[in-house]
Amino acid sequence: MTTPLIDLGSDPFALFAHWMRAAEAAEPNDPNAMALATATPDGRPSVRMILLKGADRRGFVFYTNLESRKAGELVENPQAALLFHWKSLMRQIRIEGPVEPVTDAEADAYFASRSRLSRLGAIASDQSRPLADRALFEHRLAEEEARYPEGTPIPRPADWSGFRLIPERIEFWQNRAHRLHDRAVWRRPAPDAAWETTRLYP
């Protein structure tokens, strides 16, 4: 059966949600995994795999230590790109746009939803900075476990929060036989502007 073409009349957020639900049903691990690309002010790029933790019409949310390399680059150059690739579905989505910090309330709510050890790890870790010995991190984690026994509220660290990418460009890519892939892009010149859509050559 021939794969249907991407519908250019689709709402891009609804189409993203539809594809994400399909990925959640098909991908064995972390269907919300995505590549995040950032760059320094002088244009030196870096990319890493992270997890999407929220998506709605305002944008796409992820969390990090604010002292990490990615956070530093996002503060200095608040533009980023995301890539979702679902190999089992032979689909990918590329998203580009500016980023902004999430609110404290949003960060608090997500932090509270994490497992106890994940929250303690966020406190113990100096993310992205040199670690002379893994035992040092394990020791710091043990200290935090003692400081916050099971059932004790664990406050969100001041240096841990999130970012929201506000999409200006969303490209959907669907594999088709013989590398005759289907590509469709949604663009908008301003956050409140209407989306402009077009199909792209494979």
Automatic annotation (TrEMBL):
Q: Kindly give the InterPro entries that the UniProt entry links to this protein.
A: Pyridox_Oxase, Pyridox_Oxase_CS, Pyridox_Oxase_N, Pyridoxamine_oxidase_dimer_C, Split_barrel_FMN-bd
Q: Per the database record, which ranges form the Pyridoxamine 5'-phosphate oxidase N-terminal domain?
A: 25-143
- Write out the residues that bind substrate: K53, Y110, R114, S118, R179, L180, H181
Q: Does the keyword Oxidoreductase apply?
A: yes
Coiled coil feature spans: none
Reaction(s) the record says it catalyses: pyridoxine 5'-phosphate + O2 = pyridoxal 5'-phosphate + H2O2; pyridoxamine 5'-phosphate + O2 + H2O = pyridoxal 5'-phosphate + H2O2 + NH4(+)
Pfam families in alphabetical order? PNP_phzG_C (PF10590), PNPOx_N (PF01243)
Where do the Pyridoxine 5'-phosphate oxidase dimerisation C-terminal domain residues begin and end?
A: 160-202
Q: In which pathway does it act?
A: Cofactor metabolism; pyridoxal 5'-phosphate salvage; pyridoxal 5'-phosphate from pyridoxine 5'-phosphate: step 1/1; Cofactor metabolism; pyridoxal 5'-phosphate salvage; pyridoxal 5'-phosphate from pyridoxamine 5'-phosphate: step 1/1
The task this protein performs is described as:
Catalyzes the oxidation of either pyridoxine 5'-phosphate (PNP) or pyridoxamine 5'-phosphate (PMP) into pyridoxal 5'-phosphate (PLP).
- Which PANTHER family does the entry link to? PYRIDOXINE-5'-PHOSPHATE OXIDASE, PYRIDOXINE-5-PHOSPHATE OXIDASE
Q: What is this protein called?
A: Pyridoxine/pyridoxamine 5'-phosphate oxidase
Q: Which gene encodes it?
A: pdxH
